[in-house]
Please model this.
Amino acid sequence: MTRQQFGFLAGFLLVAVWALGGAGAAAAATLAGLVGWLLVRVLDGEVTTAGLADRAAPTRRR
Model:
């Protein structure tokens, strides 16, 4: 499956969820998808939890 096909499918499913369940269901589906995507990236080693913690921490200005 190409990226374009995957993007179309993801967009189509999001609109279908929105149409059937409302905006709240669509937002929940999107959030669940993002969490799943991030989890797979962490498990594949493409993103480290330490790197995420560094990004989430406030930066200090000197």
Summary: Helices lie at 3-21, 23-43, 49-56. The chain has three helices and no strands.
